[in-house]
Amino acid sequence: MCGNEALAEAAIIAGLDAYFGYPITPQNEIPAYMSRRMPEEGRVFVQSESELAAINMVFGASATGKRAMTSSSSPGISLMQEGLSYLAGAELPAVVVNVMRGGPGLGNIAPSQADYFQATRGGGHGDYRTITLAPASVQEMADCMPLAFDLADQYRMTVIVLADGILGQMMEPIVLDKKKRRKLPAKDWALTGATGREQNIVRSLWLGETALENHNYKLQAKYENIQKNEVLCEQYEVDDAEIVVVAYGIAARIVRPAVNKARQAGIKAGWIRPITLWPFPTEQISRAADQMRIFLTVEMSNGQMVEDVKLAVAGKAAVLLYGRPGGGVPTVDEILERIKQLTLPAKR
Amino acid sequence: MSWVTKYEMQDTRNEFYEEVVIAGFGGQGVMLAGKLLAHTAMKRGLEVTYMPSYGAEVRGGTANCMVIIAKNKIASPLVSRPDSLIIMNKASLSKFASRLKAGGLLIFNSSLIDGEPQLPDTIEILAVPADDIALELGNLKAANMVALGAYLQKRGLFGSDAAADSLVDILAKRHHRTLPVNTKALHRGAEYVVSRS
User: Fold this and answer.
1) Is A327 in the B-facing interface, judged by CB distances under 8 Å?
2) Is A284 part of the contact surface with chain B (CB cutoff 8 Å)?
3) ipTM of the prediction
4) Cβ atoms of residues A300 and A113 within 8 Å
């Protein structure tokens, strides 16, 4: 299975009720797979007329308490930003998959990580966040879907799965897991027909005096809770490292052999891989910064996550970037060369 | 966290690790050959990754895929310096030949590529008239399987019969009538290598 198909099947196993989407490379295998499998399962598949329609269909389906998702690639995700802001305001669960491609504009269809800011800063207007998961293998493309739906339902918000063209297209052997993960609160807010109960209202418009300010404080408290409890991060050989490479998604896969080769060359290197990009593993990186001199961030962009690394390091160590924008993919040798440049001169 | 894939520190220098690029023009079946190689290796308990070039290829332009087969978990699925190259047309030869690792293996479709490519002495070069052999079998489209069969025989990862057994998993159902010719082509590719050595 390619990453896109693994993700799609995992979403179905995780109880997806309704998929809405509009085609765009490099994620077309998701709607193609859903168009076949969702009707087989007696569930909803709609190829919408646009990305804007897709995200608002997700809004509608989610408001009725159903598990809904959409998927797209960078330009399409830009079109959805209004809907994402409304979902945040209305506190509706949703899962949105972005299989990133090169930008800005229509860009190209090569793999990219240039939508980090858009995903982790909210993307649309208003003071809001979206939980952002960054899988790094076909197995994780599948594994992050039940987690994404559970987080979305638990916190009543959008979860973005931030992948890229390589993860979407590549194939690896996987095992699909059917276990249910979290105990979730009942969706007593959903619009299910107000027979025998008070009516529920789903809205993002708060016009009363201080009503919107209070609503924002409530959202903020939720976000702080998530920052405290939901950080996922993997690290390797950080304890004795003089240089730590920070990378997520497919870039983190390319970093691994580079760090291993650096170790073989006698350089004390390690890596940290954020799995949740928001909430960011600020504490883990801050702790590592107490012991080491150099952080190297490797990204398929001109440097976006590097800003979060700098915020976490807070001046305690040097933070450098090796970035390849516009669909460029760093090679193991390039990263290794950068690690050597940064560490070897100090040894002489 | 239970759902996170764990990667252990591995010294891959002494463990089996093979990076392959298969390249040709659109329609020569290089993706199918790569998928078949990866799938067969997976069924034999090896770790594999398969990465296609996607989307932007034009008809008649070059298409390629990267396959990694290893004993241990594979970190990066991208191949910059392949151990082996299976090259089906001339354009792909000029694009990829210089990237071969020292000591690497080049298998090329000599039906479409004239003369011997000029490469360093350390590289083993094997010319396989894949199109001609496929035509003898009555289906030019099986040239990819001839080349893959030759590769399997040369590298000795597993026999062409193992790949032939996997064909049924990889070929779309509507193409299953081509199972016999593809199976024959895999074996003929392997036999060609035996006859030359």
Assistant:
1) no
2) no
3) 0.90
4) yes
